[in-house]
Amino acid sequence: MKFSHVILAGLVLMLLLGGCSQAAPVEKGSGQGALKIKDFTGRTLSFNESPQRIIALSTGDMSILYALGGEAVGRPTAELPDSLQKAKSVQTIGTTHQFDVELITSLKPDVVLGNEQLNSKDISTIEGIGSQMLLTSANSVKDIQRQISLFGELLGKQKKAKALNDQIDERKKQVKQPKKKVKTLVVYGAPGTYMAALPQSLSGDLLHIAGGANIAENEPALEKFPQYAQINAEKVIEADPDLILLMTHSNPDDVKAGFMSEMKQNAAWHDVSAVKNGRVEILPSDLFGTNPGADVIKAIDELEKRLKRLSS
Fold it and tell me: Its family (predicted)?
């Protein structure tokens, strides 16, 4: 069964929010600024002091910023999770995919937090208004922890960053691996477009940490989105997942209906365990539709809870 190759603009945005990353060491020393930070692209940014006027282009970055005691003068035009409701009045500046340069200029930011894959092309634009762009990404929980450490150095909040990372490490250790692995398919979708999350994606990593078995782990990666694979209905039916989890940024009911309609084109679909037992479920979009940032522990909690229901 073939699926559409047309990737909707919103889907492109959310997938790229978890791009490939590298370690981000921090240096303090001489030069144009006393604080020197190397972002995930390997670029070194210099500041005379910890930036005070910060713009975040994604809710994930904003989540970490606020968890460490920082604040933003500009935020993405997006629905905020409960943990960020106190920032609701902050000026919106568009999205990571397309932001308002004039608005950003008027806010006079010291630094703009962007995504490595989506915003590399915007470095010159941000530098042209007298600011700097710090690029990160998140394809795993470890990547999120690198972001936390990096933002901690940026804000001068290293102790808070270490404490948050310690909490995440402790939560991972607390996960009790089930005796029986729950065969799971994690799907990222928008109406008409559905992809399976691979182990090298953030959601795939979260599934592994929570103790699930990813039935798509050996599928070939898509060229444009190497953290995901095209879904093949025949292979899904053969693998017979116990649980199918749907991730989406918006319109979850439409995404679920569209996915079920596509899969039902194969008569054997009704025999899949997850379908027979009503285990095709939608994950919370603030935890799985994008990088959850400092709320990554909640994402682990959510997956562990769903897997335990089937593994006990």
Answer: Belongs to the bacterial solute-binding protein 8 family.
DSSP annotation of 247 reads: E
pLDDT digits over 95-128, tens only?
Answer: 888 999 999 999 999 999 999 989 999 999 999 9
| pTM (two decimals) | 0.87
Name the residue with tokens 């809870």: 305
Cα–Cα distance, 298 to 292 (Å, whole number): 9
Q: Determine the residue type at 167.
A: Q
Q: How far lies 144's CA from each of 79, 139, 152, 285, in Å?
A: 21, 8, 12, 17
pLDDT digit string, tens, across residues 191-248: 678 899 999 999 999 999 999 999 999 999 999 889 999 998 889 999 999 999 999 8
Q: Give the residue among 173, 120, 116, 163 at the shortest CA–CA distance from 143.
A: 116
CATH number 3.40.50.12160 is the correct assignment for the domain at 15-173: no
Tokens 């995901």 sit at which residue?
Answer: 228
Average model confidence (pLDDT) across the chain: 88
Cβ-count burial 132-149 (b if 16+ within 10 Å, e if not) = bbbbbbbbbbebbbbbbb
Structural domain 9-13+176-311, CATH architecture = 3-Layer(aba) Sandwich (3.40)
